[in-house]
UniProtKB/TrEMBL annotation, chains A, B:
Its EC number is 1.1.99.39. PANTHER family: D-2-HYDROXYGLUTARATE DEHYDROGENASE, MITOCHONDRIAL. This is D-2-hydroxyglutarate dehydrogenase, mitochondrial. InterPro entries: FAD-bd_oxidored_4_C (IPR004113), FAD-bd_PCMH (IPR016166), FAD-bd_PCMH-like_sf (IPR036318), FAD-bd_PCMH_sub1 (IPR016167), FAD-bd_PCMH_sub2 (IPR016169), FAD-linked_Oxase-like_C (IPR016164), FAD-oxidored/transferase_4 (IPR051264), Oxid_FAD_bind_N (IPR006094).
């Protein structure tokens, strides 16, 4: 198969671009969201990361692939520009440095830009006017939703104009028969969830950052999250988008249809493109019914092989009500015990599983769960377990999975990786990393979304340790690439990971991405320095 | 909202392109597949449709928008070309006219090309060599899977080289834990289904044409089908593609990961692009577990409003086990009685519903169904109904929905439309069409997939009737456009519908599609005359 050749080529390309690699030297300053939906691998101690890190060499001759490139030759904002923006956005063209502060910095406080202008449009027409003007003036623009991204994609790198969707927060329509919601891009995910729950529906995605993230940003980053196992990705649930292109043209693909095969599906270009191809202004999305019954179980397995068999059994016996299958290893449990004083609710095991069911009939769901557990126990797939049906106990069991990230922050400096792999391989990376690092790491732990093949690999050290990092990278990326895995399962590439793309995508594909960028944004004004690697620019 | 303006513009553009319109004059010669998954609106009596129809004017000064444009200036095949193909595909470069016959004609026998060369590669590398050569020689290529398409997209229009995926039929991998299947593009859908059923999985799509259609063709046309309500579209279930571009480059996006956010999702470009942007050579797809329990009910409703309320109730009470919600009207039932002697299994009603459940526990599914039916009856949403759990009775009930198409062929000449609409509007089009046509039509019937908002509108006449057609079109398209519907829910545009695209897509979007085509296939050799409207070429 040519595919094998291509993948081999991909790996070689990745190595050529990225190895040997300058060790990075960041510390964790941000707190993580529940369930580790947002577990970046590259947090930084420095507020000046973006601008200064190019000069930080810590062991190699070349700058880190994650460092910001030099500022591109965009125009600088003039008084005439300000006058224009103040005219079209009265009171909503912000230049006060105090007000700009929080929009210039990502929530991990790892990247800081120096934008002097924050625009807060309310309508698509205003976004169109802004971009048309910026394109004609060669002014760079950083589209920003709730600014909860973890790869430095949601903040300016230099002086890009920040275009916030915060005031575009109207729900436009909701069809209670089809469950299709249409809203502006700046609607906060949690507000949409609350709106829908009153109408017996839920959003098809749920994130730890739901209290502040915007649906437009969720779509722009193709956010994954907790419900992906059950309801699939945004590529299936987003039915339509309205997007403003770099030159101000409005692209109306705001369909509210489940089926439409008239030409190419242009909206897919913008899902997951991190604001580099257009600014999403409205979204239509298919919403599932609110489940009437939710159960959670916490189980222990002796081996990861048994854990995988348990997953397989749950898919067969829980079938349509299975809504989450998460895991953590005994090292995670040790950290929960040690640092957070959380008591293991079952007996000690090498692996633990959190399973959630969501269904329309509590009696049926309870019976299915009972039958599944009986089979899992009698087959010796699981050695111990406990079930929760009440809210408080459900939360307590979930916390064993959710609070691993918090426990890690108490264990020391943490190197974090968000890796997608074929499900049967996800724990092998942890084992191999442990063996590879030997005594150099304090802890090497693995947890994550088994159902999605998404591993959160974390390595701790008493203090930040460039030598340890040099041992982890590029090992972790090479290992992932050798399994055709993804080095960014759900966080995107943003500023920080853009140059690592070759580990997961062949050079042909990256070149084509560059062609698409050039076609849609020939001047490159939209979210520069993000997503695409520097060698394409 | 700019969106409203855009849609208004879209409609005006559509009218400018397509109205007034030459009446068309086709008859139905093809038989339809079960469940009317393939119900084209433009079948033709003429084998020479593609080449000759440009000259067939029947009431207007301009050719039909569905007619083939003039042949584009591609090269013609030489002896040197043949020698090249025979060398790289020994015994698989077919020139025998008898063997070419079936590949030159679509299965409706409505479009016939005049290709003199059929290539049958076995590997991606061979496809790459073919396209590299064709691109350099400016030879047009018609990619062909199972040739079950209904819009003239799967056959040559003139002398394009037919590139068949029939010999690319190997299953590459199947992961029994994740349910992810990887296979070559020429695998027949039914063969994949049988392979998976042995392993306790099913394909996430099911089509009437499954016995002959290829998975590559399914993906290239974004096939919908029976299971869309439950498992979503191919845009969510297809995880990866390997594609050969027009110039022979192999694009390896054959990921087998549920999550991958490293750059733009290029595979989406090729899903639903009908072979105009690249040739799909391999597919990876996420497969659901095989349901252990299936039930079917047949219900009657007094009004369409009650039918919609029944749909809403079923979503709430059947929840995760609802797998189909189909409808037919009393006119359909009359045709089933009259022409096929099928007896109505319940009392006469204006509307009938077929509901299917698929679940993992037959007792639970039966209880849910019972509770739902009791509620629907006591709320007077449905007036009568019958349930089937045995295979033979399930088939009998399904046949009331499946055989409507067959009954229509006995009623006279049939004008068929496959329309996607907001679910609450789908029957209004039938009512309005009935009123609009008055006594001019013999029958005006509506049936389709309520769950997907997909209406099959059919109008019959004793004989073909250009005046009747002129009354139907552009009325049906304008009506659909006024509701932001789609004039092709699942069949694509192909040759026959390419110029109707403006009814469902704004001109900005169509122009961007043209840019994408020019970027990926600058010489336009891949499936020319298809998908994109003539005014872009």
């Amino acid at each position: 198969m040519a595919g094998i050749f291509q993948r081999s080529l991909r790996l070689r390309t990745a190595l050529r671009h990225l190895s040997p690699q300058s060790p990075l030297s960041w510390t964790v300053t941000g707190r993580h969201t529940p369930l580790d939906l947002h577990c970046p691998f590259l947090p930084s101690t420095s507020w000046q990361f973006a601008v200064c890190s190019r000069k930080l060499h810590t062991g190699g001759d070349r700058p880190s692939p994650a460092a910001a490139p030099d500022r591109l030759p965009f125009s600088r904002i003039t008084q005439e520009d300000l006058a224009f923006f103040r005219k079209i956005l009265p009171g909503r063209a912000v230049t006060d440095p105090d007000l700009l502060e929080s929009s210039n910095v990502d929530w991990l406080k790892s990247v800081k830009g120096s934008s002097e202008l924050l625009l807060r449009p309310q309508t698509t027409e205003e976004v169109s006017q802004i971009l048309k003007y910026c394109n004609s003036r060669n002014l760079a623009v950083n589209p920003q939703g709730g600014n909860t991204g973890l790869v430095g994609g949601s903040v300016p790198v230099y002086d890009e104009i920040i275009l916030s969707t915060a005031l575009m927060n109207n729900i436009l329509t909701f069809d209670s028969i089809s469950g299709i919601l249409t809203c502006q891009a700046g609607c906060v995910l949690e507000n949409l969830s609350l709106y829908l729950e009153d109408r017996d529906y839920i959003m098809p995605l749920d994130l730890g950052a739901k209290g502040s993230c915007h649906i437009g940003g969720n779509v722009a980053t193709n956010a994954g999250g907790l419900r992906l196992l059950r309801y699939g990705s945004l590529r299936g649930t987003v039915l339509g988008l309205e997007v403003v292109l770099a030159d101000g043209r409005v692209l109306d693909c705001l369909s509210t249809l489940r089926k439409d095969n008239t030409g190419y599906d242009l909206k897919q270009l913008f899902i997951g493109s991190e604001g580099t191809l257009g600014v999403i202004t409205s979204v239509s999305i298919l919403c599932p019914r609110k489940p009437k019954s939710v159960n959670v179980v916490f189980l222990g397995c002796e081996t990861f092989e048994q854990l995988l068999k348990t997953f397989q059994l749950s898919r067969g016996m829980l079938g349509e009500i299975l809504s989450a299958f998460e895991f953590l290893d005994s090292e995670c449990m040790r950290l929960l015990n040690t640092h957070l004083k959380l008591r293991n609710p079952i007996s000690d095991c090498p692996f633990y599983v959190v399973i959630e069911t969501s269904g329309s009939d509590s009696t049926h769901d309870g019976e299915k769960l009972h039958n599944f557990l009986e089979k899992a126990m009698t087959s010796s797939l699981v050695t111990d377990g406990t079930v929760a049906t009440e809210d408080s106990k459900i939360k307590a069991l979930w916390s064993m999975r959710e609070r691993v990230t918090e426990a890690l922050t108490h264990d020391g400096f943490t190197y974090k990786y968000d890796i997608s792999l074929p499900v049967e391989r996800i724990y092998q990376l942890v084992t191999d990393m442990r063996e590879h690092l030997g005594g150099r790491a304090k802890s090497v732990v693995g947890y994550g979304h088994v159902g999605d093949g998404n591993l959160h690999l974390n390595v701790t050290s008493p203090v930040k340790d460039p030598a340890l990092l040099a041992a982890i990278e590029p090992f972790v990326y090479e290992w992932t690439a050798s399994c055709n895995g993804s080095i960014s399962a759900e966080h995107g590439l943003g500023l920080k990971k853009r140059n690592y793309i070759y580990y997961s995508k062949p050079s042909q594909a990256v070149a084509l991405m560059g062609n698409i960028k050039a076609m849609l944004d020939p001047k490159g004004i939209l979210n520069p320095y993000k997503t695409l690697p520097d060698d394409l620019k």
